[in-house]
Amino acid sequence: MEDLKERAIRGGLAKLCGHTADSILRVVFMMVMARLLDPQDFGLVAMVTVVTGIYGYFSSAGLGAATVQSDTITNEQLSTLFWINMGFGAVLGLLCLATAPVLVAFYHEPRLSWLTIAMAAWFVLIAAGVQHSALLQRELRFVSVVVIDTLSEVAGTAIGIGMAFAGFKYWALIVATIVTAAVRTAGAWLALPWIPGPPRRWTGIWPMLRMGGTWTLNNLVMYFAFNIEKLLLGRFWGADALGLYGRANQLISFPTHTINSAIGSPAFSALSRVQNDPIRLRNYFLQGHSLVMSMTLPITIFCALFAKDIILIVLGPKWMDVLTIFRLMTPTVLIFGIINPLGWLLYSIGLQERSLKIALVIAALMIAACAVGLPYGPNGVAFAYSAAMTLWLAPHVVWCLHGTTISPRDLLVAASRPLLSSVIAAAPAFGAQVYCAELHSPLLRLALGSGVMFGVYVFVLLFIMGQKAFYLGLLKASTGLSRP
């Protein structure tokens, strides 16, 4: 079990390093594309992906997660799951083709037709790599996963930027997405040369299909809840408004998404392996949650403080209209950082149905918030979403943890130290921002502000909050030095 913990920590560190590299690539991609393309180009692609993204959840059908979570799995089961994934990918590709004229009619935008048709290839490519990627995660081979993800991001970024320079405009974004998927699937096959056999009936996959179905439905509900505003903003406010909202959303969500993606996979794999050991499950989860909070909270607060300089550096002066949206969405992203890890816990111990019920409530809440904020445009939607998520935080935590070995007080204690450290560090960072306001370089202002905030944060967290031993222990486990 200790070996499992070390492997999970090393996997999390590898994923974090990999996602950091991926994030740098994505930021570079965003910076270049924001200067080569217009808000309308991003808005057109968002009009397509907000709908095709729904189909994307069915391409895996949750069967990758089922493979990771299962105690044991046979080759016959894996082969059958692979062909089920391929079947879903083919059907969704055809459905994507049929959707093209519907989107053209809905948005009154003929350019969406070929964009939607091109996305059909993405579904087949993703489906072909689901089980290979899941096996790599199940075996905690996260270094391989990181290498594959990074190479796929490099390929997609290079192709996308090259096409944008060549004047292909919004097509550069679509092709970059397809190339990334193709390279990721090819890499998974090369890293794990498992060849699926023919599908077989009665291989005992029904429990995995049930879990995969619940997982898919849960993700679908959550996707709908947090993307309905994009559909409606595009319909009633146009591609420019949607392009601004989408850039603000992507930029402010970047740190939280990166951290949760990096730590989530190893955490889910490790928690699934100890699901029948309540003490280890509780300890592993609380340590993982505290680690996520220690990174998510200060970064998100920093982004809110230095929003103007971040936008100037990443997107450029012509995107300053996203500033208000960016700041208004900060509470939503902050709360996501707190509650997202609870999903690892629920799925690892088989509480998929509870997670689905929670998702349905969140969906209803978000739809109501969208209805309230939509008449006021992107700013109104961002404000309404943040207000709704703030009100939902406490009920969400209590519902998720009910009947588990973890109490809301445990979670509060795990999050309190990084939260207090972040708030304390924000004060001198704000002072530095005011002091450096006369500097003409936004990059210099950002560098000075980040140095002050994160320097103070690390000192307060490690020494005043007494977390030095905890993080040294994680460091030793990640390097294998904790072994006798």
Describe the fold and architecture:
There is one protein chain. Helix 18 packs antiparallel against helix 19 (about 440-465). The chain has one domain (about 1-480). It is mainly α and about 475 residues long. The two termini are about 15 Å apart. The chain is globular and about 70 Å long. It contains 20 helices and no strands.
How many β strands by DSSP?
A: 0
Apparent shape: globular
Beginning-to-end CA distance, first to last residue: 15 Å
Alpha carbon gyration radius: 22 Å
Largest sheet: none
Strand/helix succession: HHHHHHHHHHHHHHHHHHHH
Work out the helix count: 20
Give average pLDDT, whole number.
83
Number of domains: 1
SSE inventory with pairings:
Blueprint: H1 2-36, H2 39-60, H3 63-69, H4 75-107, H5 112-118, H6 120-128, H7 130-138, H8 142-165, H9 171-191, H10 206-225, H11 228-273, H12 278-305, H13 307-314, H14 323-328, H15 330-348, H16 352-373, H17 377-401, H18 408-435, H19 442-464, H20 468-479
Q: In a few lines, what is going on in this structure?
A:
With 484 residues, this protein is mainly α. It has helices at residues 2-36, 39-60, 63-69, 75-107, 112-118, 120-128, 130-138, 142-165, 171-191, 206-225, 228-273, 278-305, 307-314, 323-328, 330-348, 352-373, 377-401, 408-435, 442-464, 468-479. The protein has one domain (2-479).
